Amino acid sequence: MKRKGQELYQLAKKLIPGGTQLLSKRPEMFLPEQWPSYYAQARGVEVVDLDGNVYVDMSIMGVGACVLGYADPDVDTAAKAAIDNGSMCTLNAPEEVELAELLCKLHPWAQMVRYARAGGEAMSMAVRIARAHTRRDRVAFCGYHGWTDWYLAANLGKEDALDGHLLPGLDPAGVPRELRGTALPFHL
Question: pTM to 2 decimals?
Answer without folding.
Answer: 0.71
